[in-house]
Design a protein that fits this description.
Helix content: 25-40%
CATH superfamily: P-loop containing nucleotide triphosphate hydrolases
Strand content: 15-25%
CATH class: Alpha Beta
CATH topology: Rossmann fold
Number of helices: 12
Mean pLDDT: 90
Number of strands: 10
Low-confidence stretches: 278-288
Radius of gyration: 22 Å
Order of helices and strands: EEEHEEHEHHHHEHEHEEHHHH
Number of domains: 1
Structural class: alpha/beta
Length: 288
Amino acid sequence: MSHRAVSAQNVAFTYPSGVEPLIDVSVDIAPRSRVALLGANGSGKTTLLRILAGSLKPARGSVHVDNEPLRYDRKGLRAHREAVQLVLQNPDDQLFSADVVHDVAFGPVNLGLGTAEIFERVNDAMALLSIEQLADRPTHELSYGERKRVAIAGAMAMRPCVLLLDEPSAGLDPAGVEEMFFALEKLERNGTTVVLSTHDTALALEWADSVGVVETGTVRQGDPRLLLAEQELVAAARLRSPWPLELAASLASSGRIADGATPRNIKEVCQEIERGSSPVIRYGQSKV
């Protein structure tokens, strides 16, 4: 699997209804990175993912892979979709076959690959998502979380360098979310760049290397700790500030931790508290 950089430059898109979710969007996806696209429902996150995947052609602007512009002819789109795969929010939109193994094989079969390579890709993809035990199960008998993992396995069987996930945690209970991100960690160790859309700022703060906040048809991209600490930006995007940063601000106002601390999770919050409130106790003295 090669490692590719993907970018959108000054992209705009208008639906036939006249709705223009994206006005001037630029976003950069570095190889082997974790990128979270944040925005409220209807903000344009899914539209942007579809444009990055080549499923939609922008009205203005361009998509690039390793600085080469995406070509929208049959040959160009085929090459792009081998490099970049999109998994939609609802797995049922991407499950076509009667059982899991045939569903995961759908993409490689349509590439015209030989039987041996199809078999290898399917086995590898199911192992990455830990769904080997589901191989012969009818897809309609699977749980929602299992169907999500099967849909991702189908995308991974194409061996993309970039995987785009639309709201991968939506509809999952806490155990399902944990299983999903355990699977994503395996994909990342395998060299896959993962881009996901979400409105969960706490998830993005902890998980992502880079976040893009989608707001009024544009995207602000940057370090999660810095960007998600901008309360005006987060509010304008109709999002809620991530709870670790809200808690840090409250603790800083009472002197419990240092001003400007940007913990990403509960472990880092505890570390900041220990760092800010542990007095030196000398022998023979008691802690007051």
